[in-house]
């Protein structure tokens, strides 16, 4: 199991090259090429700025302008949904590599994860520029950004290992994941503050591990708070991530010998 977990590190040069090729291939043949990969999330951020600052002029949420609160939360959500969706389809898309006996199949989902990370790094940088342009200069709490980025990568790695291994046997899983993402943006919640939820529902909403990253990033960037202010949630998150990754590796290992046959 540890060998499968460390496979992306052992094959990091091959992984990076395949991820770069995958990134270019996503928009091969289009006029702007790879720029389209950044267009949707960046233009969405710009659209929210225009709508809420010029059009609706929404009041503050949690003591900060609503549009900034929204952008900080939706930026990691973009990465999470893009990475999980692409990882889910990765083995089907790269079935020609799955059928190669000597190829380390475990790194295929990691190709999609790294490819999505190329886009995410740029979008996260745009988010920080938006904050600075609106009166939120860098401060010590911003050093937590790599922590939260690693946290969401660790979470999506475990989930992606499971969904990618199951999809060749149950092709409808990609549609199930897409539907879950549509509901998830509201149930996480990303578009509305947790403080608006009835008190009795808050503990159940906090069981969603994505909320830990989104809330933590908002507190760090907008309020300067450290993640260790929530030790119970931090412990729960990393236990959840550990279990999901172990389960993902186990499912992947069990289904690995049968992948070439179904693909």
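Q: What amino acid sequence fits the structure above?
A:
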């Amino acid at each position: 199991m540890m060998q499968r977990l460390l496979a992306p590190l052992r094959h990091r040069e091959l992984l990076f090259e395949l991820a770069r090729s995958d990134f270019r291939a996503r928009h091969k043949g289009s006029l702007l090429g790879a720029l389209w990969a950044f267009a949707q999330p960046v233009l969405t951020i710009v659209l929210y700025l225009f709508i809420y600052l010029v059009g609706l002029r929404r009041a503050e949420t949690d003591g900060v302008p609503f549009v900034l609160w929204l952008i900080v939360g939706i930026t990691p959500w973009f990465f999470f949904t893009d990475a999980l969706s692409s990882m889910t389809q990765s083995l089907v898309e790269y079935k020609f590599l799955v059928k190669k006996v000597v190829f380390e199949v475990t790194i295929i989902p990691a190709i999609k994860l790294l490819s999505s990370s190329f886009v995410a790094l740029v979008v996260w940088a745009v988010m920080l520029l938006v904050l600075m342009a609106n009166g939120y200069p860098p401060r010590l709490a911003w050093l937590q950004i790599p922590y939260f980025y690693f946290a969401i990568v660790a979470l999506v790695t475990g989930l992606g290992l499971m969904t990618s291994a199951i999809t060749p046997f149950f092709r409808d899983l990609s549609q199930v994941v897409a539907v879950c993402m549509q509901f998830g943006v509201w149930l996480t919640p990303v578009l509305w503050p947790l403080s608006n939820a009835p008190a009795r529902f808050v503990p159940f909403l906090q069981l969603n591990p994505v909320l830990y990253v989104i809330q933590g990033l908002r507190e760090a960037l907008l309020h300067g708070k450290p993640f260790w202010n929530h030790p119970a949630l931090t412990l729960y998150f990393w236990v959840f991530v550990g279990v999901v990754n172990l389960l993902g590796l186990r499912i992947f290992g069990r289904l690995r010998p049968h992948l070439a046959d179904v693909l």
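Q: And what stands out in the fold?
A: The chain has one domain: 2-262.
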